[in-house]
Amino acid sequence: MSHELATAVLTVFGALLVIAGLLFFLRPKWLLGWLKGMAVFGLILVGVYTLAIAINVAGYQSLEGMQTVATVSTQRQAEQRWYVRLQAPGKNTVAETLTGDQWQVDARIIRFSGPLRWLGVAPGYRLERLSGRYTSLEQERSGPRSVISLGEASWPDLWELDQTFNMPFVEGVYGNATFMPMRDGAMFDIRLSASGLVAVPVNEQAREAIQLWDE
Question: Transmembrane residues, as ranges (predicted)?
Answer without folding.
Answer: 6-26, 38-60
